[in-house]
Amino acid sequence: MPEQIHISATGDPTEMMVTWVTLAATNYSIVEYNKVGLPLALRASGAITKFTDGGSAHRVLYIHRVKLTGLVPDQRYDYHCGGYEGWSAKFSFNALKSGVDWSPRMAFYGDLGSVNAKSVAYLQEDAQEGKYDAILHVGDFAYNMEDNNAITGDDFMNQIQTMAAYVPYMTCPGNHERAYNFSNYRNRFSMPGNTEGIFYSWNIGPAHIISYSTEVYFWLEFGIEQIVQQYEFLERDLREAALPENRKLRPWIITMGHKPMYCSNADGDMNADYVVRKGITSKHLWPLEDLFYKYGVDLMLTAHEHSYERLWPIYNMQGCVSKHDPFPKDQPPWTAYRTVDYGYTRMNIQNKTHIYIEQVNVDLGGQVVDKMTLIKDVHGPEAWIRKNVKN
């Protein structure tokens, strides 16, 4: 029987990728679907990948991937998946809207486990009520997907099915995915591009979103080639996204990567932050902060620290400081708000100049404890782009 069902965006609003698992080999990998309320008369077939976990039992999972094409943007669809050995329950999703003049709504978070996943009930309800156009999971899944011969990974994927089968679930790898060269992550998720979800980009409304791996800087046993390939991809992708004609179409450039470049947590991770900012070795090879600054990244979403922290604009340890809200002595001047309570973040890319973000505190019953609007100067960026991105 199909299980662990989830969908992901491809960047094309007429498409949706459906991914699921069977614990035995099957002859079919089919999605039947149609506009909501109609018989599931449309059919698409896909591919099956045999995945052998690296644990002692060498468990085998069969990963099914089917891309739906020809969807009508903003149309709601019913679907089920599987084949004649067994079908899933019926789920539904909204095809993404087309164009740039709409307001995508998202939830984002990282470090979500199978146990003590306090935010899941809130996210499930929101997703099934249609409050999100996408969910961004910024690394660290299940704790850990490979545990118990990958049964923990199965449990986690079934747990998030109640939201990920309804809303595109977009991911990046974290340090807890590193086992067997990130094999559980690379096999279980289906992200855009041909890099097994390690790094990729996609468009949604007026935003260009880039997902990347901070972990290539820390697990060099998997090869320095991963750092080089990702850095070259990031530079190409950012250069193209920052061209005046593209920046005018999609002004927002948003990145998501697991480890932060800055944090104020007292857990000794500032060295890791430094590596992500400045690159590896004393020669600072492949630094991400300078690259992101050069091409005008507007917003960075990170995770890893088990807390919520929102920063003022910052580059090279130099931040913007409010003169009206004094901070405690142990809070750096580039931190705007922080809390260690459980929660998740909602984001609404309202238009080409405004992004609204709010933090939901589930320890306080879903109370919004922090909110802000990020406003883009509509006159400054194009002059900045002409100066910094000439080719």
Features:
6-stranded mixed sheet; 5-stranded antiparallel sheet; 32% strand; disordered C terminus
What is the secondary structure topology, with strand pairs?
Layout lengths: L2 E6 L7 E7 L7 E6 L6 E4 L1 E6 L7 E9 L7 E8 L2 E2 L3 E4 L10 E5 L2 E2 L6 H9 L5 E5 L2 E2 L4 H18 L4 E4 L6 H10 L11 E5 L2 E5 L13 H17 L2 H6 L2 E5 L13 H9 L9 H7 L4 E3 L6 E4 L2 E2 L2 E2 L15 E5 L3 E7 L4 E8 L5 E9 L4 H9 L3
Parallel strand pairs: 10-12, 11-13, 12-14, 16-17, 17-18
Antiparallel strand pairs: 1-2, 2-6, 3-4, 3-7, 5-6, 7-8, 7-9, 10-23, 15-16, 19-22, 20-21, 23-24, 24-25
Mean pLDDT rating: 92
> Which residues sit in consecutive blocks of at least 5 with pLDDT less than 50?
321-329, 381-391
Query: How much helicity do the residues have?
Result: 10-25%
Percent strand? 25-35%
Biggest sheet, open or closed, and with what strands and sense?
6 strands, mixed
What structural class is derived from the secondary structure elements?
alpha+beta
Oligomer: single chain
Q: What is the global morphology?
A: globular
Give the count of helical stretches.
8
**Total beta-strand segments:** 25
Strand order of the largest sheet: 14-12-10-23-24-25
Radius of gyration: 21 Å
**What is the terminal-to-terminal distance?**
52 Å
Protein name: Purple acid phosphatase
Enzyme class: hydrolase
Catalytic activity: a phosphate monoester + H2O = an alcohol + phosphate
Domain Calcineurin-like phosphoesterase: 105-308
